[in-house]
Amino acid sequence: MGLSRKTFCLFFLFLVLLTNLELIPPAKSAPDNTNLVYKGCAKQSLSDPTGVYSQALSALFGSLLAQSSKAKFFKTTTGSGQTTISGLFQCRGDLSNVDCYNCVSKLPILIDKLCGKPVAARIQLLGCYMLYEVAGFSQISGLEMLYKTCGGTNVAGVGFEQRRDTAFSNLESGVVSGGGFYTTSYESVYVLGQCQGDLGSNDCGDCVKSAVQRAQVECGSSISGQIYLHKCFISYSYYPNGVPKRSSSSAYSSPSSSGSGQNTGKTVAIILGGAAGVGFLVICMMFARNLLKKHDDY
Q1: How far apart are CA 105 and CA 99, in angstroms?
Q2: Rounded to the nearest 10 degrees, what angle do helices 160-177 and 201-219 cross at?
Q3: Which is more confidently placed, 245 or 152?
Q4: Domain 36-134 belongs to what topology?
Q5: If DSSP codes are grouped into helix, strand and coil, which group holds residue 181?
Q6: What is the spatial distance between Cα 14 and Cα 53, in angstroms, rounded to a whole number?
Q7: What's the pLDDT tens digit per position in 51-70?
Q8: CA–CA separation, 14 vs 18, rounded Å?
Q9: Is residue 52 within 8 Å of residue 81, measured between CB atoms?
Q10: Overall pTM surpassing 0.85 (yes/no)
Q11: What are the phi and psi torsion angles at 183 (to 5°)?
Q12: 145-256: what CATH class?
């Protein structure tokens, strides 16, 4: 009888441990750098009866991909004359060479899948982008806005906009001195900015300044936002409970509207786990008491 009770105690302990493991909230995974942000596909398709454009485009993609394991930005051309195709890729400045290559390697496939073979295309992922254009394609201003997204939660009236604008001011000066990529935070507002790799310092500063102005107008008091211009982009996020420690893969993690959710989960897990543990000890003590009582009866 004692053996069966001992076995029951061990089994109950196993259940307690299993319950505690299930109650612990899983670690929040970092956002995937290869998530699609936006696509831009020219309406005009390539007229390519001889396949010369396809060959030049394949060569271009191969050249860009080969460089992505050792550089964050690369621009080149393939073909000749009317069949010349220029293109480039750029990775976010905080990505490692391995992460950059993994990101860029997705882009040629996505361009073909999402755009086909137009005369120009651009695909922006969370961690990198690639674009190409055939000779003669009409150029657009480097300050033209390609895409924006603004967080749905507004925080007006709590001094947020003043803190955000101070962070923006630091970003504008930092991105120039930082070689075209810069991140910083100010009073729980995290900002990031990057210019296209071949943009000069003055043009980079002007581009980021324009993006900041767009963010202020377009996103207003939104808790987060991303503004993509043709030659640069910026993002910002407000963290009410303080900017978390970041890694290269978490530069765009979305701020939580309240940091209490995860802490509440941990608290519940501790309380329930503690209650289960106390219950386990009480049951085992009762079993031990019964065993001693029977031993005394003999």
Answers
A1: 10
A2: 160
A3: 152
A4: Killer Toxin P4; Chain A (3.30.430)
A5: strand
A6: 65
A7: 999 999 999 999 999 999 99
A8: 6
A9: no
A10: no
A11: -130, 145
A12: alpha beta
